[in-house]
Amino acid sequence: MELSELQSEVDEWLREIGGYWDRFQILARLTEELGEVAAALQRQEGLRPRRVETDLEGEVGDLLFTVAAFANVMNLDLQRSFRRTMQKYRARDGQAWQDNK
What we know:
The chain has four helices and no strands. By secondary structure, it is mainly alpha-helical. The mean pLDDT is 92. It has a single domain (3-96), classed as MazG-like (Helix Hairpins, Orthogonal Bundle), CATH 1.10.287.1080.
């Protein structure tokens, strides 16, 4: 699936159910979802007491959905954003990543 398709699917579904939250509510939701990814990973790795079932893939999916919703509200093209970021990493950070291994 292309990122543009992901954005369209999220947009269609959100419009069907009544629309988007405002950008700050979505940003708060992004923070919450990232925290859930972190908590799931900590539990999966045994770093949190009371190890429980985790769904790391589901939590990352929630994060991705919310990123797409935020991009839609802000009129951002995720595909273009990602391409620009990859160009930046390739030009600036490639050696640093190798050095940190």
